[in-house]
Amino acid sequence: MRRARPEVAGLTTETEDGRLVSRPLAAIESEFDGTVWFFSPGDSEKVHQIRSHREVNVSSESIDELWTKEVEAWFEGGKDDPTVALLKGTAHSAQFWASTDPKPVVLPKVAEAVATGGTPEVGENHSVSL
To answer: What would the pLDDT profile of 4-25 be if each residue is shown by its tens digit?
Structure first.
């Protein structure tokens, strides 16, 4: 079964004082095998946090393979910019929300739940092991 690659994924790192910091990052388009790639400035705080807590890796080995014109817009020196870092996250499991209804159907259900104090039934949460 081919797994869908996330377009945006949350990256959580740990600060020196143990706080967790999460942020959305655009995932690089590639065949999804449980590995998600992100480009980031190598001198960013998230990269410093990753180097201290190795749940995510910082790599330069696949920059040529994964580089796109869209990524180039973020780095003045292109793929040879010394600040380019490639982050590699390997997922062991994932959770996702699945809704069979389109937004125009979901939004009135949510509005009704807010008005009545109920809970809308608009989808299901799923977990998968990768």
So the answer is: 455 777 788 888 898 888 888 8
